[in-house]
Amino acid sequence: MKLCVFDFDSTLMDGETIDFFADALGIKAQVAAITERAMNGELDFFESLQERVGLLKGLEYSKVEEISHSLPYMPGAVETIAELKKAGLTVVCFSGGFRTATTYAKDILGYDADFSNALHHKEGRLTGLVGGDMMFNWSKGDMLVRLQNILGITAEETMVCGDGANDLSMFPYAGTRVAFCAKEVLKKEANIIIEKKDLTEILGRIF
Fold first, then answer.
1. Catalytic status, residue 7
2. In degrees rounded to 5, what are phi and psi of residue 153?
3. Residue 32, Cα to own-chain centre: how many angstroms?
C-alpha cells in the first residue's frame, strides 16, 4: 500500500465536530439527529450539511476555533498514522467537516494533508454558509481518484477508512476498505470491519 485516506469525524476524532458546535448553542440534539440520518445514508449529504450549518448561524467564530482545537481524538490515531508513515504510506484526511478542526489536527495526528470544508464567517460570527472540497456525497471518491492520478497510485495500493455514508464513494477506488465503528451502509461494502474504538486494531489486519 502507498496511500491511506482517513475520514475525520468519528474516525480520527471521537465524535462529530458539528455536534460540538451545536452544543455551544444548546441545539446539539437537533443537529445530531440530522447528522445521524446523514451518516446512515438516509439524507442527501449536501442538503443535510447546509441545513446543519444554517442552524449554527450567529455562533462566535472564536468559539468555533476554541472547540475545534479541543476535540477528543480517537484512541490509537497518532500511533496508527505514525506506523503507516513509517511503512512509507502517504496519509491524508478527507472530511465532510471543517478545516478549523482538520487543519489544526494535521500536525498533532501526523497526516500529510487535509481536505475539508470552510465555515463562512463575518464580523466574528458564523453566517450559516459553508463551502469547500467535501460538500457532496460523491466528493470523497472524486477527490481520491484525483489524488491517485497525481501520485500515480492504483486502487490496489490504496486504503480508505471511515464510518458513514459519505465515505462510501471512496470504496470503489480502494483495495483495502475499512469500516471503523461504522454504519451498516458502510460495513456492507468493507473488507475490514473494526468494532473497537481503537485505530491500532487496523494495523494487525493490514500488516
1. yes
2. -115, 140
3. 16
Query: Which range marks the domain in which residue 72 is found?
Result: 3-206
CA distance 164 to 182: 6
Domain count, the chain: 1
Enumerate residues 6+ apart whose C-beta is below 8 A from 196.
181
Residue 32, domain CATH: 3.40.50.1000
State the average pLDDT for the chain: 97
14 catalytic per annotation: no
Mean pLDDT value of segment 180-195:
97
pLDDT tens for residues 63-100?
999 999 999 999 999 999 999 999 999 999 999 999 99
Burial 73-98 (b: 16+ CB within 10 A, else e): bbebbbebbebbeeeebbbbbbbbbb
Q: Is the pTM of this model over 0.90?
A: yes
